[in-house]
Amino acid sequence: MNKELSWGNQSYQGEFILLGMSDRPRLEMSLFALVLVCYLMVLLGNTTIIVVSRLDPGLHTPMYFFLSNLSFLDLCFTTSLGPHMLVNFWRKSKTISYGACVVELYISLALGATECTLLAVMAYDRYAAVCHPLHYTTIMTHFLCFTMAAVCWISGFSISLVHIVIILRLPLCERNQIDHFFCELPAFVKLACVDTTLNEIVILSISAVYVLIPVSLIMVSYGYIVAAVLRIRSAEGRKKAFNTCLSHLMVVWLFYGTAFFSYVLPRSTSSADEVKLTSLFYTFVNTMLNPLIYTLRNKEVHKALRRLMKKS
C-alpha cells in the first residue's frame, strides 16, 4: 500500500509488518498446525450448535438462543483473525495494510466486549431458570431475549469505537513493526512515538468500568443461584441445578481467566513471546473449547443431534 498517511509533520507509508515468531520458523510451522486445527474445530463446533439450535424445536429456548449468539460471536471473532494469520505463517513478508489493521482491531475489540456482556446475560438467564423455574417462561420472553442480545452487540461495538478513536489520534511516525501475530491493542499502542501513559490510563479505565459491570452481574446472579441450590433438599435436585450452570461457569472462567493473563499480567511479568502465545490461546483455544463444553456434557444437544441425524 503506497498511500501516504499523515499526522501533522510526521508521515507514514501505511503498511505494518507483523513480526510474529519470524525468528523461529520451526515454531511458526507448529503454531500454524495448532491454529489451523483450532480454527477448523471452531467452525465445526459453533456451526453445529447454531444449526442444531435453529432446526430442533426442543432447543427453541432462551438458553440456546443466547448460546447461538455466543457461537456466532466466536465464529466471527476467529474468522476476523484466523485466515490472515494462517496465510502469514507461510509468507516471508508478513504485512498488513493500515486500513486492514484498524478494521481488525475494531472487530476484535468489539466482539470481545460483546462477549463480556453476553456472558452476563447468560448468567441472568441461568438465575431465572434456577431461582424462578415456575415463572421462567414469563420472565424470559422473546422480546426480552432479543432486547438483551441487541444491547450486548450494540454496546460492544460502541465501546470498541471509543477505543479506536483514542488510539487513532496517536502519531505513529516511522514505526511500522507490530510485535504480534495480528493487530492487537497493546502492541498497536507501542508504535506511538509520544508518551502514551495518559492514553493507556483512559483505555484501561474505560475497559475496567465496562468489564466490572458484567462481572458484578455474573457474581450477583450466581450468589442467588448458590443460595437457591442450597435450599434444595434432595441431593439429586442440587446436582441437577448445579449442572444447569456448570457449562456457563466454565466458559466464564476460561474467558475472564485468559483475558486477565493476556491483558493485565503480561505487561509486567511476561516476555513478549509469552504474551503472543497467550493471545493465541485466548483467540483460538478458548473459542474451540466453548462449543465442546456446551455439547459434551449436554444431553439435550445429544438428543437433538440424534433426532436430526434420524431425519436426514
Structural commentary:
The chain has helices at 25-55, 62-89, 98-131, 136-139, 142-168, 185-189, 197-230, 235-263, 266-269, 272-296, 299-311; strands at residues 5-7, 10-12, 15-18, 95-97, 177-178. It has 312 residues and is mainly α. The strands form two sheets. It has a three-stranded mixed β-sheet. The chain has a two-stranded antiparallel sheet with strand order 1-2. The radius of gyration is 21 Å and the shape is globular. Mean pLDDT is 82; it is low at 1-13.
Keywords:
312 residues, mainly alpha, three-stranded mixed sheet, two-stranded antiparallel sheet, 11 helices, disordered N terminus
What is this structure's SSE topology?
Layout (H helix, E strand, L loop, with lengths): L4 E3 L2 E3 L2 E4 L6 H31 L6 H28 L5 E3 H34 L4 H4 L2 H27 L8 E2 L6 H5 L7 H34 L4 H29 L2 H4 L2 H25 L2 H13 L1
Parallel strand pairs: 3-5
Antiparallel strand pairs: 1-2, 3-4
Describe, in short, the structure shown.
The protein has 312 residues and is mainly alpha-helical. The protein has 11 helices and 5 strands; from the N terminus they run E-E-E-H-H-E-H-H-H-E-H-H-H-H-H-H.
